[in-house]
Write a structure and sequence with these properties.
Layout lengths: L9 E3 L2 E6 L4 E8 L6 E4 L1 E6 L6 E6 L10 E14 L5 E13 L2 E10 L8 E3 L8 E3 L19 H4 L7 E5 L5 H12 L3 E5 L4 E4 L6 E4 L2 E2 L5 E4 L6 H14 L2 E2 L3 H8 L1 H10 L7 E2 L7 H8 L4 E5 L8 E4 L2 H13 L4 E5 L7 E8 L2 E9 L14 E4 L4 H13 L4 E9 L2 E8 L5 H7 L3 H12 L17
Parallel strand pairs: 1-11, 3-10, 4-9, 12-13, 12-17, 17-18
Antiparallel strand pairs: 2-3, 4-10, 5-6, 6-7, 7-8, 8-9, 14-15, 15-16, 19-22, 20-21, 20-22, 23-24, 23-26, 24-25, 26-27
Helix pairs in contact: 3-4
C-alpha cells in the first residue's frame, strides 16, 4: 500500500481574494501580513448590544473601496477585546470576533479584529493566525488563488449569500401585554436582541445631516428593524416617531403612512373603495340636515353607526330601527363626534373572520363570535374564537386590503356576506393572543421570518462611469 501524498500547500500572494460567509461578505480583497498576529476588517459604526453574559457587536462593512454606498450590515458574538498596535505604532482596543474564511472552496475559522481602516488601501488584513500551516506565502506575487469579483454585489445572489445574523430590534409599545412579550421571547429565542421602547418617551432631533431618535436622555442606537405597536390614542405621535426611523433608514415593519391611513376609518374606506375591495355600504355626512339622506344611501334598518375613533368594538352601535338610527346619529352629532353609517350584514349572524396577513400572505385565520346578545365579535368584549378555513376569495380580499395600506403586518376583519367577503377594518397593530391560541400557529415566528428576509442587503446598482449617457 502506498502512502497518501501530503496535500499540496496553498500558495498565497501578498494580496488575495477571500470571502467571509458568516458575515455575508462574498468577495473582498485582503492583504497578507505575516507580521500581524490577528486579522483585521475595515468596519464602520461599531456598537455592542445583547446581554452582558454574551455580548454581541454590530457593525457595517464597505467591501468595495470607494463605494461607501454599498453597506453590508453584520453582527457577531464578541470573543475578546485586545490592545492592538498598528504598523504605524498606534495602539487601539479592538473587539475580536470569530468568523469563517473561505478561499477557493476551502474554509477554516479565523479571528478578526474590527477597526476603521479608511486610511489603508486594503479593506482586510490577514494575520498569522488566519494562515493555515499548509499555506505558503509568495511575497512577490498577488492573486495566486482564483480571483473573485465585486460583480456579486450587483446580482440577486447577494441576498442568498446573507447569513441568519443576530439582529437588534426595537418594539414600539407602551403595554406589557401578550403580544409584546411574545415578540420579545420569540426574538430572543432566535438569537436577536429585542428592546421594548415606550413610544411616548421618544423624542427626535430633526435635521438634514443627522436625524436621530432619543430616549431617556440618550440617542437610541441603530436598529435593524422596528416593530410598531402603536395604540390608537397616540397615533399621530407614534406615526411621527416611525417617520423618524424611516428617515434614518431603519426597516419598519409597518410604515407610518399606512398606520395613519388605516386608523382614519373614513379615509381607510375611501382607499379600499378606490381599490374595489368589498365592504359594507358606508356613508358619511357632517350636516344634521342630511340624516335622512345619509341613511338612505346605506339602506334600510338595521344600521351600524360607528365612531371614526372607535377601537375594539367601543363606539359601535347597532340601530335596529330607523327611529333608533336617527336617535343615535343625533346623539353623536350632539357630542360633535365624527361617525360613519354602515349597512348591517344580517347573514354574518354576529360573526366575523380575522385574517392575519404577514409579508403579503395570510398566515392564520380565526372566526370570532360575539358574546350572547352582542352583535360585536371582539374578543375584548367577551367574544370567542376558533380556527376557520377561509375561501380563496376571502384570502385574496385580506391580502389586497393589507396591500392598500402597504402594511406588512395586518389584522383584516371580514364579514361573510351573500355577495362575497366584506372588509370591516384593517388593523395595523393586531393582537396575537387570540389568533395564536385559537389556531395553534406561531404567528410571531412568521413575523420574524419576514423581518429576517427583509433586512438582508439588496443588490446594489452599478454606478455609471463618467461621461456615459442615461437618465
Amino acid at each position: 500500500m502506498t502512502d497518501t501524498p501530503p496535500p499540496q500547500p496553498l500558495q498565497f500572494g501578498w494580496e488575495e481574494w477571500v470571502s467571509l460567509p458568516d458575515l455575508g461578505v462574498p468577495a473582498i480583497k485582503a492583504k497578507v501580513d505575516t507580521g500581524a498576529r490577528t486579522s483585521a476588517l475595515h468596519a464602520f459604526d461599531i456598537e455592542t448590544f445583547g446581554p452582558a453574559s454574551r455580548p454581541k457587536v454590530r457593525f457595517t462593512v464597505h467591501p468595495i473601496p470607494g463605494r461607501d454606498d454599498l453597506i453590508i450590515p453584520c453582527s457577531a458574538t464578541i470573543i475578546d477585546r485586545r490592545d492592538v498596535t498598528s504598523s504605524n505604532g498606534e495602539r487601539e482596543l479592538r473587539f475580536v470576533i470569530a468568523s469563517t474564511l473561505s478561499v477557493h472552496g476551502d474554509s477554516w475559522p479565523i479571528e478578526i479584529t474590527l477597526t476603521n481602516r479608511s486610511t489603508m488601501t486594503s479593506r482586510m488584513l490577514l494575520g498569522r493566525q488566519a494562515l493555515k500551516d499548509h499555506i505558503s506565502i509568495v511575497a512577490t506575487d498577488r492573486f495566486l488563488q482564483p480571483e473573485l469579483s465585486y460583480d456579486v454585489y450587483h446580482t440577486s445572489r447577494m441576498r442568498a449569500a446573507q447569513p441568519n445574523r443576530a439582529l437588534r430590534i426595537a418594539v414600539l409599545s407602551r403595554e406589557d401585554n401578550y403580544s409584546t412579550r411574545r415578540i420579545v421571547a420569540e426574538g430572543e429565542k432566535r438569537g436577536h436582541t429585542v428592546e421594548v421602547i415606550d413610544t411616548t418617551r421618544c423624542y427626535m432631533a430633526i435635521n438634514a445631516l443627522a436625524p436621530e431618535v432619543h430616549y431617556d436622555g440618550k440617542r437610541l442606537p441603530r436598529y435593524d428593524a422596528v416593530i410598531p405597536r402603536i395604540g390608537a390614542s397616540i397615533t399621530p405621535y407614534g406615526a411621527a416617531v416611525i417617520r423618524q426611523f424611516e428617515t434614518i433608514g431603519t426597516y419598519c415593519v409597518n410604515p407610518s403612512a399606512g398606520i395613519t391611513a388605516s386608523r382614519d376609518k373614513l379615509y381607510a374606506h375611501q382607499l379600499m373603495a378606490r381599490a374595489r375591495i368589498g365592504m359594507p355600504n358606508t356613508a358619511f355626512a357632517a350636516s344634521p340636515h342630511d340624516t335622512a339622506n345619509l341613511m338612505g344611501l346605506v339602506g334600510t334598518a338595521p344600521l351600524i353607526v360607528k365612531l371614526l375613533e372607535s377601537t375594539q368594538g367601543k363606539g359601535v352601535v347597532l340601530a335596529e330601527t330607523k327611529k333608533a338610527a336617527e336617535s343615535v346619529i343625533d346623539a353623536f352629532r350632539g357630542l360633535k363626534a365624527n361617525f360613519l353609517v354602515q349597512d348591517f350584514v344580517r347573514e354574518a349572524a354576529g360573526e366575523d373572520i380575522r385574517c392575519l396577513v404577514i409579508g403579503g400572505k395570510v398566515v392564520a385565520a380565526m372566526k370570532r363570535t360575539g358574546a350572547e346578545g352582542d352583535f360585536r365579535s371582539n374578543l375584548h368584549r367577551g367574544g370567542s374564537a376558533r380556527t376557520v378555513r377561509i375561501t380563496r376569495a376571502e384570502r385574496d380580499t385580506a391580502i389586497r386590503a393589507a396591500r392598500v395600506f402597504d402594511l406588512n403586518m395586518a389584522g383584516v376583519d371580514l364579514l361573510r356576506a351573500d355577495s362575497g367577503p366584506k372588509v370591516l377594518e384593517v388593523n395595523s397593530s393586531p393582537g396575537f393572543e387570540g389568533i395564536e391560541g385559537s389556531t395553534g400557529k406561531n404567528i410571531t415566528g412568521a413575523l420574524y421570518d419576514m423581518i429576517e428576509s427583509r433586512v438582508r442587503p439588496a443588490p446594489v446598482r452599478r454606478r455609471r462611469s463618467p461621461g456615459r449617457g442615461g437618465d
